[in-house]
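Figure-free illustration: sequence to structure, shown twice.
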Amino acid sequence: MLLMLAALAVGFVALSACSDDDTDDGTENSSGDGNGNGNGGGAQTSDADLTVKVGEFITYEVPDGYDAPLTNMTGMVDYRKVGNTLYLNGLQEGKAKLEIGKDFTLHKELSIEVLPNPELEGKTQKITLTTTEAAVGKPIGLEIKIAGDDAWIDLNNNGVKDEGEAEAAKTAELEERLNLPAKTFSIYGRVYSLVVRYTKLSALKVENGYALTRLHCSSDALQEFRVADLDCPNLRELSLGLNESRTLDLTRFPNLTELSISNGNSIGLVDPGNVESIILPSKYLVKLKVVEQPLRELDLSGYPCLSWLSLIDTHLKSLDVSPCSKARNLNVFLRDCSMLASVNLANGNNTNTDVEIYDCKDLKCIKVDKGFDASKWTIPTAVTIKNDGTSCP
């Protein structure tokens, strides 16, 4: 698929993770309410095929066999493709053209119009980060992606855009490290992607975060984290290192498609976290990763789109992935799940499922689709494969 963009606005054309209907002719299947539940944003006020207000989103599924853009052509739009779903973020107000190609030949051209959103007028997105005392005066790894030219970093947290603070935002956009003169600092403006690395970040807050769609924080000191402090309804990707939270309710992020929860340290130098249960967001979730958390329950019954699941060192006793029936390609990775005794992968789509299981000592049985041969999966030889239609004991 080719993508041509004319003068665009800070709204999003973001797309659902899977669709109830599978079109195959390249026609759009969008119409929506702008709240992540539907397809297509605000009311039609122009001749555009797809219309959306700033801060809303529309959904678009790319049919099988059609091409998608592989490079960022404008430098102002962040887009990616997951399965058959194309995601566009950071569009500027105005009009755009989306070209759908097959065999590198133009098949269909869709027009998109991003309209102003009165509800967002006068509101400025603000991301406030607080570090530990030990981090003051030391470099912080900060990577941001900006829509427009209004972003700046309040390094001394005085609420005033001082000399050099607009340049600091451009430096962070280049993924370079910044020295922190204060314990608390804020990022203002239309940042749609934020990645924080190499620092002891203790608190995080987002206000009026309509532009933020991607948030990754690998800090192992994030102790004052509260989901209620994240006002970012269009969030699509969330990755957090947590040590203190017990129950994580993510239903305030109805458009979340990728979720990663870990203890904040990939090499295991800190104690495991304490997330025992996760209340997942909307049906759009496609990717879930949980690392070194005493997770005891995981209900996937409301998430048919899930296509990538990684569980490392959890306390789950059983895992049922059978409700994920619409996944075109399901990847399951399990390691060090010492209490896991049974797994149900019979979702009617095991031919498109890849499984890797290591060091799950109590796992004795895996149920798969009837007649399916799982011999090519990476699983312990002692595990019984139930492919006769019966369940594990």
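We now fold a second protein in the same way, so the two outputs can be compared directly.
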Amino acid sequence: MVSIFLAEDRACNFALETALSARHLNHYTYRKLQMPRVANPS
């Protein structure tokens, strides 16, 4: 039983880290894409 709980906890942590990194990556690419538009309002 303990090993199952540890596996679930590890999977939950991995999913949380993946979601956070993906969110950070999306935010970074969004800012990177928005920057030239703000710099060059053409």
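Summary for the second example: DSSP finds one helix and no strands in the chain.
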